[in-house]
């Protein structure tokens, strides 16, 4: 019986022992500045969005608070049985939106309940 030996002439090439070096490609000046502008705009948008979110949650906004001119006209209202802040606001400013007045009365009273006969002074 004859022995057959097989020798493959194809062998794998040796693996490189080092990794290929990737060199940084210099960025064009226009691309550099365009990226900077985009980053600055994204930052500005984030600041504005956070300011709006803060205003919606009740903190101060970036604008100055609204100031009303001081007037010498003071109105005194006597609370009647069954009155609410809404009905008092409607008596103080008939024909106007009572919501801002209700909010101011509520803040000034710190949540205290209305008592019949109580006098409320309003300068408006």
Keywords summarizing the entry:
single chain, 124 residues, mainly alpha, 3 helices, two-stranded antiparallel sheet, Membrane-bound Lytic Murein Transglycosylase D, Chain A
What does this entry look like structurally?
- With 124 residues, the protein is mostly helical.
- Among the domains are: 30-60; 74-123, Roll (Membrane-bound Lytic Murein Transglycosylase D, Chain A).
- The protein contains 3 helices and 2 strands, in the order H-E-H-H-E.
- The protein has helices spanning 29-56, 85-92, 99-109, and strands at residues 74-78, 119-123.
- It has a two-stranded antiparallel sheet.
- Helix 2 packs across helix 3 (99-109).
- It is elongated.
- The N and C termini lie far apart (122 Å).
- The mean pLDDT is 79.
Q: How much β-strand is present in the residues?
A: 5-15%
Strand order of the main beta sheet, please? Answer: 1-2
Please bin the fraction of helical residues: 25-40%
CATH topology of the domain at 74-123: Membrane-bound Lytic Murein Transglycosylase D, Chain A
CATH architect. name of the domain at 74-123: Roll
Shape: elongated
Rg for CA atoms: 39 Å
Helix/strand class: mainly alpha
């Amino acid at each position: 019986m004859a022995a057959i030996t097989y020798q493959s002439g194809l062998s794998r090439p040796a693996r490189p022992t080092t990794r290929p070096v990737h060199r940084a490609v210099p960025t064009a000046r226009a691309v550099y500045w365009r990226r900077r502008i985009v980053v600055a705009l994204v930052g500005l948008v984030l600041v504005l969005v956070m300011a709006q979110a803060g205003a919606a949650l009740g903190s101060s906004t970036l604008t100055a608070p609204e100031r009303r001119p001081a007037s010498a006209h003071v109105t005194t209202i006597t609370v009647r049985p069954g009155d609410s802040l809404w009905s008092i606001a409607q008596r103080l400013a008939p024909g106007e939106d009572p919501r801002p007045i209700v909010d101011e009365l509520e803040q000034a009273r710190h949540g205290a309940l209305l008592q019949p006969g109580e006098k409320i002074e309003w300068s408006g």
